[in-house]
Amino acid sequence: MYDFDLVIPSSVADAASAMKADGAQALGGGQTLLPTMKQRLAAPEVLVKLSDLAEMVGVSAASGILRVGGATTHAQVAEEGAAYPALAALAGNIGDPAVRNRGTIGGSIANNDPAACYPAGALGSGATIITDRREIAADDFFTDLFETALDEGEIITAVNFPIPDAANYQKFDQPASRFALVGVFVARFGDAVRVAVTGASNGGVFRWSVAEEALSADFSASAVEGLAVNAGDMISDLHGSAAYRAHLIGVLTRRAVQSC
Amino acid sequence: MPDGGIGAPTKRREDTRFLTGRGKYTDDFTPQNTSYCAFARSQVANGKIKSIDTSAAAAMPGVLAIFTGEDFVEVGGNPAGWAIVSRDGEPMKEPKRPVLAHGKVRHVGDAYAAVIADTLEEAMDAVEAIEADIEELDAVVDMASAVANSGTLVHDEIGTNTCFDWGWIEDNRAATDEAIKKAPHVTTLELINNRLVPNALEPRCSIGEYDPGTGDYKLTTTSQNPHLSRLLISAFVLGIPENKLTVLAPDVGGGFGSKIYHYGEEALVLAAAKKLGRPVKWTATRTEAFLSDAHGRDHVTKIELACEKDGTFIAFRTETMANVGAYLSNFSTATPTFLHGTLMAGNYTVPNVYVNVKAVFTNTAPVDAYRGAGRPEATYSLERVIDKCARELGMDPVEIRRKNFIKKDQYPYASAAGLEYDSGNYDALMDGLEKTADFAGFEARRAESAKQGKLRGLGINAYIEACGIAPSNLVGILGARVGLYDAATVRVNPTGNISVMVGAHSHGQGHETAFPQIVADMLGVDPETIDIVHGDTSKIPFGMGTYGSRSLAVCGSAVFRATEKIIVKATAIAAHMLEDEPDNIDFSDGVFSIAGTNKSVGFGDVALKAYIPHEYPIEGLEPGLEETAFYDPANFTYPSGAYASEVEVDPETGKVTICSMVALDDFGVVVNPMIVTGQVEGGLAQGIGQALLENSVYDDNGQLLSGSLMDYAMPRADDLPSFVVDHSHATRCNHNPIGSKGCGEAGAIGSPPTIVNAVVDALARGGHDVDHIDMPVSPSRVWAAMNK
Ligand SMILES: Cc1cc2nc3c(=O)[nH]c(=O)nc-3n(C[C@H](O)[C@H](O)[C@H](O)COP(=O)(O)OP(=O)(O)OC[C@H]3O[C@@H](n4cnc5c(N)ncnc54)[C@H](O)[C@@H]3O)c2cc1C
After folding, report:
1. What's the structural domain count of chain A?
2. Which residues form the Aldehyde oxidase/xanthine dehydrogenase a/b hammerhead domain (chain B) (predicted)?
């Protein structure tokens, strides 16, 4: 690890101005950033610690929306997200207790790891990402692997999740990291269904629109039987070929629908 | 008999300190004025070192010294501990393994420079400032390309990538070929024994110290065998006289083989400490562990099993390529040969066995012994091909094994692979397995799984292994460059408590608890009054350390012998005290007495007399009560076992879930059944890791793709079923005084074939035409096999 300065702001406004410093970077739970820094693969000059900001921590439900503060840990969402059980279950199945007690939703979504769970939850729910500057629809937020619509220094202060009538997240673990080898989040709002897939695609988290159409017409596992994503766009690595990932998307989508 | 003697399931006394954070591992030592070492390691798998410019680095803050390969050209190399002779009579090729790479780097992670600085951060900063001009060359990674010798040579000077081409037993080759040619049935299987990264919890760590006042060196290091490290450093690598070098291996957080060997980093911190007159510490990062610890396994094998139509075995023949990586690690040549080929007859009365092993250099990390070392590879090949054969013949896998088992009245049994098995009872183990694993209930459980949409399979395995490799005379003839005895000193202190100095090293095996049980049992004293001293060459007799499940069978026997000597001497002292002849003295439960009288004296009083020898027959008897024994076994010990596992395969995803794992082992006399159960369970976890999860993968350029725990899958608790472990079906080892065989590796030997047999069985019962899947049997591989 290289040397850096640590800023502990007392408000989001403070944090936002601290983020203007050269080489400043937001620090959430540090579960991704700190290991990278220890390996000297990242060298921020200033870390702005967000996890103590009361304004950014907490889970609340009102008017069909579950609001999760940007610095809320996975553990807290798992415990207090009962208004949106599928999301609470997703949070409760990220990493291990040590990771869940530190890692935050803002960090996870800002990082947009192609195998992470929250991006599927946010995209699948049609969430709104709220920053210190604006609101961004999940559909516009996740732009590419590890890329988001966030601007330099922009801070995720909260994420608003519309609570669906039914939802389920199916995660198939990559055997080593236990991130998602493939994860599928299915949410039904009346007749409208959203299906978001993580872990699988070379382009990062995506919506499987063909399945969404089929499920919107007929919300049953059999409706997606025989549908397949194009394996050509899928990741192929040590843990699974593109064809295997494409196949798992179908299996997990059916299982998610069955579990709704 | 005191409580806690041989056979007592005493809780491990060392666990109190381990579980409360009071263990003292190498990195916990920071002598005053310690400086820190960081290594510059190759990013390429094969490269020519054109120049290394250290001037900028040397000028960085805190930098004390920088070493490169140049600094070690005058000193010796790290040798291989076993000389193998090829089939054509040529000795194996032994390229030099330097302290730091010189001229060429040969694998990713090969260290070519080291910086010593006041702080670790300064050392790391300076490593980044070293300007190394390394010209990347084509790497040779896969063994088939390497043995073709048509492209890259890992070591130009030896002119080949083949270290040796070994035949065992070469004289049996023609007969085996002939038998296979004529056999009514031949089953052939090609398989890969996957390469593993040992991943001890504690990474390697070494601290070098030098005392300019006395000229003494001290190396504190993560070692399974401190005396061996001292010998190698003294006799081969640095030439430091043995009497001037203390090697200390304090608490060690797991080794699994990877800490048997002497590594260049140890030599470096010693040389640096001498140069600087300051202690020098190096602690590996997890990344360095992945790149530079000796890896395990990595065999590619073709095995043929020839038999009669009724399943009677006629011959086994194997052809194996064994990866040794870029350099010969200390036991890398013994592992695929004498620890592998000699076991290829398994538990069976097969008359013909021939094993051919080519050891191959590649641009990858060195490969050496890893829990089981050669024996898991032998067992896996054999027990997989037997299952395939049974399937081809339409025989039950239990029946085909039973048909060929060596029977209990056939011992000692000379196996066709050249070993003499002293004892065993494989049918009894199989009988026990059938009951314990409830074979009869399998169909019902399978039907239940089928209702849940799962394919259930049952896999079995029978294994034999060889522990406590010995005797020295024999291994010397076979090429070993070391002896394989062990040593113990039993020191009875004046007040009657006892210190036992042992050559074995405990890094998870529970010696501190088990060895006192032997002494307590023999002396009739409380085991709590006995302590073990190990891991410090300045305190213990010259021993060979711990690996190959040898500690109890070999070092425990030395403890036994030394204790016998204590009894002889104490009896003489007691005889004097009781005014009688030693022959008339009985000794039991810690009391010396004369039969038929009420004259007796306790062990404690005898000890005191030995050290305060007033009214003592000083002319005929030395004072003191301390004895040393060196024990060189007459033979290997031969643990054996029968394992069964049931698995469920999810046919949609290919995911395998282990439902049950039953391990029946014959370890001979068990000193502490609780520790033995723990050893088996740990081995099972590692074997299941190999079977389902772990895989060390290099790409074609020699980059380690599974170079971190994000991609290298270690078994976690929820990957494992509840184990059923039973070591009650025991036959005594006939040639060591305790009667024990060795249990440390069994679980890792017996479980991989059991699991893969079960998965293939599940698929076959599910109607899939799959006769083999290479390990790790990951979901994607199972799915691919089902959908090929
Ligand atoms: C062992 C392990 C297992 C894991 N398993 C899973 C898993 O199964 N599924 C899964 O989804 N994830 C998993 N993770 C990742 C985990 O969820 C992390 O918590 C998450 O990726 C990053 O969150 P963090 O709060 O720790 O962010 P940090 O590491 O602090 O930061 C990550 C990045 O986000 C930026 N950032 C942080 N907070 C904000 C914010 N509020 N606004 C803008 N930018 C911000 C940082 O600058 C940095 O670039 C695992 C991690 C580990 C170590």
Report:
1. 3
2. 20-138
Domain enclosing residue A79, as ranges? 59-162
Out of A7, A12, A27, A32, mutate this one to test ligand 1's pocket (max ligand atoms within 8 Å of CB): namely: A32
Nearest CA to ligand 1 atom 34: A107
Q: Which H, E and C letters describe B164-184, residue by residue?
A: EEEEECHHHHHHHHHHHHHCC
Q: Report helix angle A85-92 to A118-125, nearest 10.
A: 170
Residue A101: inside a domain: yes
Spell out the domains of chain B, with CATH numbers in brackets.
Answer: 31-137+201-254+259-292 (3.90.1170.50), 299-470+635-786 (3.30.365.10), 485-631 (3.30.365.10)
Distance A80 CA to ligand 1 centre (A): 19
Query: Is A14 in the same domain as A83?
Result: no
Residue ending a domain, among A126, A147, A162, is A162
Residues 6+ apart with CB under 8 A from B62: B117, B118, B119, B122, B123, B126
Cβ distance of B124 and A40 shorter than 8 Å: yes
**Is residue A53 lining ligand 1, measured as CB closer than 6 Å?**
no
CATH number of the structural domain spanning residue A32: 3.30.43.10
Residues of B with CB under 8 A from a CB of A: 121, 124, 128, 287, 652-655, 692-693, 695, 697, 705-706, 709-714, 776, 778-780, 783-784, 787
pLDDT in tens, B145-203: 999 999 999 999 999 999 999 999 999 999 999 999 999 999 999 999 999 999 999 99
Query: Does residue A54 belong to any structural domain of this protein?
Result: no
What is the rounded distance in angstroms from the CA atom of residue B145 to the CA atom of residue B139? Answer: 10
Please check whether residues A151 and A186 belong to one and the same domain.
Answer: no
CB B660 within 8 A of CB B437: yes
- Angle between the N-to-C axes of helices B603-611 and B557-578, in degrees from 0 to 180, rounded to the nearest 10: 80
The alpha carbon of A111 and the centre of ligand 1 are apart by a number of angstroms equal to 6
- Output the six-digit token pair for B256: 């699994």
Domain assignment present for residue A158? The answer is: yes
- Do A256 and A220 meet the contact criterion of CB atoms below 8 Å apart? no
- Nearest beta carbon to residue B653 from set A39, A172, A239: A172
The model carries a pTM of 0.97
